[in-house]
Each structure stands twice: as C-alpha cells, then as structure tokens.
Amino acid sequence: MPPPRLIDIDRLDYDHVVYSHDQIYEFLPQRHEFVQLDRVIHFDRDAMIVVGCREVRSDEWWCRGHLPEKAIFPGVLMVEASAQLAAIATHLINPEIDGFTAFGGIDAAKFRDSVLPPAMITLVCRGVDIRKRRTICESQAFVDGQMVFEGKITGLITRW
Questions:
Q1: How confident is the model at residue 116, as a pLDDT?
Q2: How far is 99 from 97, CA to CA, in rounded Å?
Q3: Can you tell me whether residue 117 is helix, strand or coil?
Q4: The model's pTM
Q5: Is residue 66 among the annotated active site residues?
Q6: Please, which residues have CB within 8 angstroms of residue 90's CB and are 6 or more apart in sequence?
Q7: Is pLDDT above 80 for 66?
Q8: Lowest mean pLDDT among 19-23, 64-68, 74-78, 135-139
Q9: Which position among 16, 21, 42, 66 bears the catalytic label?
Q10: Stretch 96-105: mean pLDDT
Q11: CA 27 to each of CA 20, 95, 120: distance values in angstroms, whole numbers, following the listed order
C-alpha cells in the first residue's frame, strides 16, 4: 500500500510555471541527457514542498536500449529527476545555502509501477531536514494520478 501523498496532486495547476526549464538549468549544472526536469509548477515554503514535471517521450536516448520491445523509463532516471528536484527544493527552502546540492544517497526507494512513454511524471519533494551541509527530502512520483515511485533523497552541499 502506498504511503499518503505529500500533496493533493489533483489540485495542482499544471499550467502555472514557478521555474521554467531554462530557469532550472541556470541553477543546476546537469546538461544533455541528464536534464531531467521540464518545469517546477508549485512551491510552498511553509510546507517545504516543491512539485516538478518531467515529460517522458518515446524518442529519448534510453528507449533504444532499455527494453526496446516495450521501453520502460529507467528507475535510475526517476531517482535522478527526484534528486534534481530535491536540489532545487533545498535552495528554494533555504536560499542562504551556498553551494551545489549533490546527490548523496537514497533510502526506502520503492518503484510501484512502470512508466511507459509517452507519459508525464509529476515529481513531489518535501524537505524533511534542510541543513547547511546536508539535506533530506521525501520524494514521490506520479503518472496519471498513480504513485510510481517513493524514496528519501539525501543531498550533500558541495562547493566547486
């Protein structure tokens, strides 16, 4: 049984853009195949919740080799998308943090369903413990209202 949702995704305004793709990647250093977020559509500082979206297309680089007869979005890319959203959440929740939030680990990861292209993944991240050098965020991902992933992302604040 999935855990309670971190936010009621049915009440989100998917047309409301808090951060566009270009604004996200002005902040995050990932490029090319590792660009995993399309937009941020919700930010609630008090609840420490950030919601982002990722369009999964059937022409992406991984489709050719990841079960080509029936391409399934790789779980590792869902974790990467969640980690990128957690990095954005860390700095939105505490803008005084100086540095890049690098992926430090994942706990309690569960993949609850396959994601087949084309699909739109709604990623939800809630800050649990945001500190100067480390952050922990609960993450959930949904497709068509169904939870497909959950886990706790740890980020390490680095300077480079």
A1: 96
A2: 6
A3: coil
A4: 0.96
A5: yes
A6: 97, 101, 127, 130, 135, 137, 155, 157
A7: yes
A8: 64-68
A9: 66
A10: 91
A11: 11, 12, 23
Distance of alpha carbon 109 from alpha carbon 75, whole angstroms = 10
As assigned by CATH, the class of the 29-158 domain is alpha beta
Nearest residue to 113 (alpha-carbon basis) of 79, 147, 71: 147
pLDDT value at residue 2: 87
Q: What is the DSSP string of 13-53?
A: -TT--SB-HHHHHHH----GGG----EEEEEETTTTEEEEE
Would you say the C-alpha torsion 123, 128, 130, 135 has a positive or negative sign?
negative
What whole-number percentage of the chain has pLDDT above 90?
88
| Amino acid letter, 113 | D
